[in-house]
Write a structure and sequence with these properties.
seven-stranded mixed sheet, six-stranded parallel sheet, alpha/beta
Length: about 400
């Protein structure tokens, strides 16, 4: 009978969560043999003999037939995952940054070495989105995927809109609870959601997109006036990732805050939860919901990948292998709310149509349509601007 002997890289929040859920799971014959960490001398509640600081103790161990990579550093994760597959070991990875920048190579490595790389846990925490896209939505009827993909930013926004908290205090609470890192830029500026969206786009539409060519904007410059505007309009602000067909041959994608109306499913997704709406040509909308942050929910998602590997499951990349998957375009327009304090900043944005304008001594805003390619062209300038940007509709 098959048994999985696991070499685990990383023993942070998710690694410890996996260790706990694996100890309590009876559905798979799997055991962690070694855990590779940076600081071997750090005191931990797990048996010290499990730990090593030498990656070769896992990668070169013939008894270890599954490598589970749960570390933060994308470059180190790339070396670990590539090295494991080159040695004929299947891999479960949670590093969405590494995956997003190396998807094509990761597909080729799996084929070349006849191994599996599973990473459902990298995309939406406890929600099995990738496997559903691979198995249930493995046709060309899917038209869009829209979702809250980052539990940390969603927790912060929930505290702001539900409890009247300030951004600074809500961020601190998210960090204290382990939902956000000490340097929260990755979460609150939309990079985490961006990399997850790039991964989901591959499985939803078969298209690989360079993350550097996708527009992302986060919530770190959210101000009380933006919150007041949303409340006056009966809306809530959420950080939303979206990929959708422009026509049969093209797709577009971006990550931005969105002014949500109550009729939308993700309007009610709160705290550290994620929510994904999948829309199809004939089945309309389907909604998936679950925790997107925390040790045990994410550890459970990793365990699901391990269990899938136990049963010899692997992604088939059906849409990627089609002759002509849709290509990525940025010439479509998006309707946005732009709040600014400096007219020179506003001049960088090329609106094709403006529906609403407001100006005061404290701040100004406009609502209008703007080409996505314009936002991409000034992406490198936007972090230096005192602005807040949110979509009004998809």
């Amino acid at each position: 009978m098959k048994k999985l002997t696991i070499g685990l890289f990383g023993f942070g929040t998710v690694g410890q969560g996996l260790y706990t859920v694996l100890q309590n799971s009876k559905t798979v014959d799997a055991q962690i043999k070694r855990i590779c960490i940076k600081n071997k001398d750090k005191k931990r509640s797990v048996d010290a003999h499990l730990f090593t600081a030498n990656a070769a103790d896992i990668l070169d161990d013939p008894e270890i037939n599954l490598v589970v990579e749960l570390i933060d550093n994308a470059n180190d994760a790339y070396a670990i995952v590539k090295g494991a597959m080159q040695r004929g070991k299947s891999v479960v990875s949670g590093n969405k940054t590494m995956l997003a920048f190396h998807l094509q190579e990761m597909i080729e490595l799996q084929q070349r070495h006849n191994v599996a790389l599973l990473y459902d846990a990298s995309a939406c925490g406890s929600i099995p989105v990738i496997r559903n896209l691979e198995e249930y939505y493995d046709n060309d009827l899917l038209t869009s995927l829209t979702g809250i993909l980052n539990g940390s930013s969603n927790y912060i926004l929930t505290k702001i809109f539900q409890e009247g908290d300030t951004y600074t205090h809500a961020l601190k609470e998210a960090q204290d609870l382990g939902f956000a890192e000490s340097n929260p830029t990755f979460d609150v500026d939309g990079f985490d959601s961006l990399y997850k969206l790039v991964i989901l786009t591959l499985h939803a539409f078969g298209t690989i997109v360079n993350p550097n060519e996708v527009f992302n904007f986060g919530i770190s410059n959210l101000q009380p006036c933006d919150i007041q505007f949303a409340r006056e309009k009966g809306r809530r602000i959420k950080l939303v990732a979206r990929v959708g067909k422009v026509n049969n041959d093209t797709i577009t994608l971006y990550v931005m805050p969105r002014m949500l109306t109550p009729d939308l499913y993700i309007y009610g997704v709160e705290d550290e939860y994620n929510g994904v709406v999948i829309r199809g040509k004939y089945y309309d909308k389907q909604f998936m919901f679950g925790k997107g942050a925390g040790a045990l929910p994410t550890g459970s998602a990793v365990l699901s990948d391990i269990t899938a590997q136990f049963h010899d499951y692997r992604y088939e990349y059906k849409k990627y292998n089609e002759p002509t998957p849709p290509h990525y375009v940025t010439n479509n327009e998006v309707e946005v709310y732009l709040r600014y304090n400096n007219s020179k900043d506003f001049e960088q944005f090329v609106f094709t149509e403006i529906f609403e304008k407001y100006s005061s001594k404290e701040y100004s805003y406009v609502i209008g349509k703007i080409p996505l390619c314009n936002l991409l062209s000034i992406k490198h300038l936007i972090p230096k601007m005192d602005i807040f940007l949110a979509t009004m509709r998809s």
